[in-house]
Amino acid sequence: MRTGVAASSAILTAAGLLAACVVVPPKQMGGADAQQPADSAVVKMIAGSLLPALYQGDLPCADCAGLRYSVDLRPDSVYFMRTTYLGKGGPQGTSYDDIGRYSLSQDARTLTLQGGREPLSLYFENSVTLRVLDRSGQRIDSDLNYYLKNVPSYQPLEPRLAMRGMYSYMADAGRFRECRTQLDLPVAQSADNRALESAYGTARPQPGQPVMVSLQGRIAMQPKMEGEGLQPTLVVEKFEKVSPGESCQGAP
Fold first, then answer.
1. Residue 120 CB: number of other CB atoms within 10 A?
2. Sign of CA dihedral 17, 137, 133, 26
3. In terms of C-beta density within 10 A (0-12 exposed, 13-18 middle, 19 or more buried), how is residue 251 classed?
4. Is the pLDDT of residue 91 over 90?
5. pLDDT at 4 over 50
């Protein structure tokens, strides 16, 4: 007897997916367009063994030659996304970045990206192809391209955008927990970091206690403070303000 995935509609953890046998319940089957069991490569991808992974594709655009979507799926249920206007029309060459968290449908076939923009749904055709769905989560009936393909040579996106989060400073090092993704990032000692440190020192209730801050920043891959390798790091490009007494709960 085939069993369904025992999981909520919330984000599935890597451990849960690796332990689960992802199969569509019988009542969901039927018809040429019925949802099919997720193949092992898709399950491994969402479980994290094939992540991070970068998907890219040029989608239709009403007032330009195309919109290039780049989606960086990370193993901690976090995504980075960049949208770039192509060709003539529109703000050519302009890119807009977004960050957020993704959730997986019960049948392990559809990802929903929720960040600072309207939610985006992506359907796993297979481990190398994602299809963009419409706002209601249905397939788009069109001859135009609505597919994102896996980029074989992975290069992480380094999103640049406005961020809010809880900042703290201890032992000569700053850390920033971004509200939307809950990423806990070290803060680079460069750019406008000095203004952030100074404002925090004035606003903090007690040494080391987190305070809400707003800033323009970039999440860049930089060398670890200890050990070898690179890690996501917040580069504060423009500090804006501190908001004592606020928290990530309910933050826009």
1. 20
2. positive
3. middle
4. no
5. no
**Omega cis (within 30) before 37:** no
Task: Identify whether the C-beta of residue 45 lies closer than 8 Å to the C-beta of residue 52.
Answer: no
Q: Tell me what the mean pLDDT of segment 129-153 comes to.
A: 94
Q: How far apart are CA 19 and CA 189, in angstroms?
A: 41
Cβ(76)–Cβ(91) below 8 Å:
no
Please name the residue ranges forming H helices in the chain.
14-19, 40-47, 193-203
Enter the DSSP assignment of 27. G
Number of residues assigned to the chain: 252
> In what helix (H) or strand (E) does residue 120 lie, and over which residues does it extend?
strand 120-126
For residue 151, which phi and psi values (nearest 5 degrees)?
Answer: -90, 115
DSSP state of 198: H
The two structure tokens encoding residue 23: 């199969």
Q: How far apart are CA 179 and CA 131, in angstroms?
A: 28
* Coil, strand or helix at 168: strand
Q: What is the token pair recorded at 74? A: 């990370």
How confident is the model over 161-185, as pLDDT tens digits? 999 999 999 988 999 999 999 999 9
The one-letter amino acid code at 159 reads: P
Supply the Cα-derived Rg of the chain in whole angstroms.
20
